[in-house]
Each structure stands twice: as structure tokens, then as C-alpha cells.
Write a sequence for this structure.
């Protein structure tokens, strides 16, 4: 027969969880997030709807974004067992320099809208984890200010070619002078994509006050207070504003850019050159023949062409066609470390991550970005150990496939 008794206080007290007083409430909340999906939900609660939709949304029906994510759900690994995986190396070489994890932080536009700390906070997190960080032409921190704020981070600069060639040349020269070693030429923005969420939300550049946005202040006072009490929210390298971001792209950027512009860029840029926005084997070969250093298979996170190609699906054929001659990277639809491992196994040199860290930025500024990087780092390491590999170089196509 079971004998029952009252527990002693000394037996109960050790079981009661105590908050870590060395962390803020937000840091503790972030620590409870187990995935990028959890971070996304926290971000959604902490910023106005229009801000979240700007980051979370995509072009028209959003089918390109959804299919880019869905394809990773079809990934199937074939692990190897009984291998010593006590020591794991996650680093890779990207364009001649070491990167501590097999991904870089992609350039994103209007970053201070997600959190007032903006690009410097993202660069600080990148530096902490030993990652390259790309600053966008549509950034809200200038080329020089970012270099001054985070001189220790490896900096890339992403270029949209505007109708004013002189302005693009100035941007390249400024980036070169400020220690940026790689230029990312984005080529999938002949015009801006139609982003229905932005239109429905009435999101303009800069944000305008309407009855709807004023009502939103009541539910997100911290975000609005930070916007109204810090430097004006505007692009650091563009003077044109008004309308949605898609409208701005169409108005400012050059729809007539062709492969002939590569030689012009080479005349104005001495560092590594990466072309981002390729979605076919044919264009990958074209980029290779133009003598660039790397190609990024990308559909712009689904934000440009609706019903576009899914980069992961074309990656193996592109790697077979050009992978030994230029470096091949991939982005779009990546929400976990297992997604990154899958891309590496299919042959990518590395990946670029954008939306995932923006969720972290919206959720908690620098601390939120750090939490996203912690999650991705742990997921990559654990996945590799369970696959029986000790370095990125050991990943190969025999270990991965896409289920029908």
C-alpha cells in the first residue's frame, strides 16, 4: 500500500523555476522560442501589421514564396551512422574568405522599419557569429555609417542599377572606399513586383499617418515611439520616395539593364562580384561566361515574379552546369538549419538568409537576430551530426533527395 505524506519545503523549492535575472524579459521570451516559426509569431505581435506584412509577404498570389518553402518540406535525407561526429566544423569559404557558418546575411531593404536599430544591429549579430553581411541599396543606414558602426564585420554591398548610372558608380566607389569587399548585383528587378499586402495595408515610403495607422499606434505604442523619436525613417542612398516599395523600384531602377553592364561594373568595382536573381540554368551559364565570381539562385524571396521558379529545384542542374567554375549560392524559402543543410548537400557553396533574421529583428532588435542565428546554428550542427558528417565538405547529393 502506498504511503502518502506532505512534501517538505526543501523538496519543493528546488523544483520551482526561477527567472534568469541576468536576462531581460524580452531575452527570456526569445529564449523560449524554439524555431524561426516561433520568432515569426513573436515578431507579428510586436510590430504594426503593415510592417509585418512588408517582411512576410510576397508578390501577387504569393505562390512563389509558398512553393519555395514547400519544396524544403519535400527534402529527405539519407543519414550515415556509426561515425564519429563528436567534433563538427560548420565553417565554409565564401569568395576567398572564411565564414563561420554556411550562410551569409542577405541584404534587405528598409530595415529600420522593422526595428529602429536597423542595419547596425544586424551587422553586430553577424560579427558576433563570424558571418558576412550585405547592405542593400535600399538600406536605411548609409554605406559609411555602417562601416563606422561595425568595422569588424565582413561587409558586402548590394547594388540595384538605377537609371542614373553616375549614382550607381558613386555607390560602388563609396562602398569600395569603406571596405566592402563584395558587390552583389541584383538582376531580377527590371520593375517592382506587385505586392498585394502592401497595397491593402496602404504602406508607403515613408510611412504616412492615416486613420488606420493612428489606430495602430494604440496597439503598438513602443514601435511608434521609437520611429518618432529616432532619425527619420528613410532610405540612406535614395532620394526618391512616395508610393509602395514596388512603385519605387519601377520608378527608380533601370529596366534596360543587360549583360553588357557587367563590363561597366568591372570598370568601377575591384572586389568580388556576385550576381543575384538567377533562376535558370541558361542564365547561370550566361553569368559564368561574363566572368563573375558567384551566382545566387534567387527568386527575391517570392517578392518579384509570381509563379516563378523555385531555386532549390534548379540548384542541382545549375551546379552540374557551372559549379566548378563559379561559386553557386541560393536563397529563398529558408526557415531552418535543415533547409540550409539540404541546399549544401545539393551542391550550394552556401546560402543567404534574409526573412528569417528580419523576423528576429522585428521580435527583439539585436537580441532577436542573435536568437535566430543561435537557432540556425544549432539546427545545422545537429542535422549534420545526425547525418554522420563532420564538415560541410562531406555533404553530397547521395545524402538528399526531393520526394515527389
Amino acid at each position: 500500500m502506498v504511503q502518502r505524506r506532505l512534501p517538505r519545503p526543501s523538496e519543493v523549492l528546488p523544483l520551482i523555476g526561477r527567472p534568469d535575472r541576468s536576462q531581460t524579459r524580452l531575452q527570456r521570451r526569445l529564449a523560449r522560442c524554439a524555431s524561426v516559426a516561433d520568432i515569426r509569431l513573436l515578431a507579428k505581435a510586436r510590430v504594426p501589421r503593415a510592417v509585418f506584412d512588408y517582411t512576410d509577404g510576397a508578390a501577387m498570389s504569393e505562390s512563389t514564396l509558398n512553393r519555395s518553402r514547400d519544396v524544403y518540406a519535400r527534402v529527405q535525407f539519407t543519414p550515415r551512422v556509426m561515425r564519429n561526429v563528436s567534433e563538427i566544423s560548420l565553417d565554409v569559404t565564401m569568395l576567398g574568405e572564411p565564414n563561420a557558418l554556411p550562410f551569409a546575411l542577405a541584404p534587405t531593404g528598409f530595415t529600420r522599419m522593422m526595428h529602429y536599430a536597423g542595419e547596425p544591429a544586424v551587422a553586430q549579430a553577424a560579427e558576433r557569429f563570424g558571418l558576412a553581411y550585405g547592405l542593400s541599396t535600399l538600406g536605411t543606414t548609409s554605406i559609411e555609417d555602417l562601416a563606422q558602426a561595425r568595422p569588424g564585420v565582413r561587409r558586402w554591398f548590394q547594388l540595384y542599377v538605377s537609371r542614373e548610372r553616375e549614382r550607381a558608380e558613386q555607390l560602388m566607389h563609396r562602398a569600395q572606399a569603406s571596405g566592402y569587399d563584395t558587390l552583389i548585383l541584383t538582376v531580377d528587378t527590371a520593375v517592382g513586383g506587385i505586392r498585394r499586402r502592401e497595397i491593402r495595408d496602404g504602406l508607403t515610403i515613408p510611412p504616412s499617418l492615416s486613420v488606420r495607422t493612428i489606430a495602430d499606434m494604440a496597439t503598438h505604442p513602443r514601435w511608434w515611439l521609437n520611429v518618432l523619436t529616432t532619425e527619420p525613417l528613410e532610405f540612406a542612398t535614395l532620394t526618391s520616395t512616395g508610393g509602395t516599395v514596388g512603385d519605387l523600384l519601377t520608378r527608380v531602377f533601370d529596366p534596360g539593364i543587360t549583360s553588357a553592364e557587367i563590363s561597366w561594373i568591372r570598370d568601377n568595382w575591384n572586389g568580388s562580384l556576385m550576381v543575384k536573381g538567377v533562376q535558370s540554368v541558361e542564365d547561370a551559364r550566361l553569368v559564368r561566361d561574363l566572368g563573375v565570381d558567384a551566382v545566387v539562385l534567387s527568386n527575391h524571396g517570392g517578392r518579384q515574379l509570381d509563379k516563378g521558379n523555385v531555386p532549390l529545384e534548379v540548384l542541382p542542374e545549375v551546379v552540374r552546369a557551372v559549379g566548378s567554375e563559379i561559386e553557386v549560392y541560393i536563397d529563398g524559402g529558408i526557415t531552418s538549419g535543415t533547409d540550409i543543410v539540404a541546399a549544401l548537400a545539393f551542391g550550394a557553396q552556401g546560402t543567404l538568409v534574409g526573412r528569417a533574421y528580419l523576423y528576429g529583428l522585428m521580435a527583439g532588435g539585436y537580441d532577436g537576430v542573435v536568437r535566430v542565428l543561435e537557432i540556425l546554428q544549432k539546427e545545422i550542427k545537429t542535422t549534420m551530426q545526425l547525418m554522420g558528417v563532420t564538415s560541410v565538405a562531406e555533404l553530397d547529393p547521395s545524402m538528399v533527395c526531393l520526394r515527389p
